[in-house]
Amino acid sequence: MTATRSALILLGWLALVTLTALTGIFTPPGEWYAGLDKPPFTPPSLAFPIAWTLLYLLMAVAAWRATLAAPPAMRWHTLWPFVAQLAANALWSILFFGLHWMLVALVDLLLLWGLIVFTIRRFAGVSPLAAWLLAPYLAWVSLAAYLNTSIWWLNG
Length: 156
Known about the structure:
mainly alpha
């Protein structure tokens, strides 16, 4: 594969991940979230944009690495869980921050968590590095599940 083609693939994944990130930008926490009771170990507000920026970058690089490593006949098999988890990721911000549907957002978050695990397994089959690049994302989404569950419980 040429360097130009490789760079275009990376740019494509960066663009798709950026589209996913836009749902979070267009559905900010706002006053509603600020007024909710929150559990212990809630990170400071500044941690969220920093963490998500890094995580989205790692996600794009992981997808790029998996794309390059997967045999052409196996690319869709390898990559569809990643695309599916991006959709679940984008939906969560809309459900939680946009619509304030905490329980439905939690169900989506549990689906997201499972899709990330599935993606990691698929990526590990072609690129262990790509799989490991998603480990911080899985950890952060695990924290998000704790926060979503706790906020739903505390605020009914």
